[in-house]
Request: fold
Amino acid sequence: MSDAASQTSDPGRELVLTRLIDVPREKLYRAWTDPELLKQWFAPLPWTTTRAELDLRPGGGNLIVMRSPEGEEFPNRGIYLEIVENERLVFTDAYTSAWEPSAKPFMTAIITFEDEGGKTRYTARALHWTVEDRQAHESMGFHEGWGRCADQLAALAAKL
Amino acid sequence: MSDAASQTSDPGRELVLTRLIDVPREKLYRAWTDPELLKQWFAPLPWTTTRAELDLRPGGGNLIVMRSPEGEEFPNRGIYLEIVENERLVFTDAYTSAWEPSAKPFMTAIITFEDEGGKTRYTARALHWTVEDRQAHESMGFHEGWGRCADQLAALAAKL
Reply:
């Protein structure tokens, strides 16, 4: 983890997934920001991503619809807070559009892509507003789910 | 109110204060963004503002300390989400720094400055995450407090 991440780390409210991936960070960033690519890795199989609309600017909205193996669809709406090309993406579900508060602010995600020994240090942090929400997210399978998605992301980006 | 404001208006969670002020919007914007000016109007007298640190960029923090007539200090920390010079400021207390969730996301403020018949339509909207928080803010004296501050702001800006 970077110093910046350590400084703001709050073990009580934060979940972190990190991977050293043997793919240039530009390709990982592209897989996060091109909707057609994102749909290919964002949901842990056999779940799928049926829709991805990404308005990549601070205040821009995103809508990602995931479909369960049983065919039920789950729309997720959020807002980008920060975009640094090939380095960093920050988004939250605290707003549904700029700046309409959501029914329940659950988390803010910080995705970072850093060069590390010729590979990419990929880190996904989920910062929650409460310890209870962090615990719920962990119980829902954060580490397994985000971990499998990171593997799918790495495999796809390696082919770009 | 502008169309944009009407479109996202949620009477259950929103409080709005608007004034037609006979001062160019550039001066009102300056009084909101220059810390030394902000300290002169931001708290309803006899309250004062003893400290104002404004990092004016999306993700930049602000710290504003208000002092009661009895000498008690109340620090308020937030984050700017959107900055459009002379037009629009958006900030929230949902984060204490970029992007550390605060203990309690209470509101997002949208301040707009629009030309209207040679004057400025000044609008301050407070969007809350819950109806209860909107009600609490209203009971705390939103309309009177923000209204008196708007008068102080108008008086100061007129002298710039």
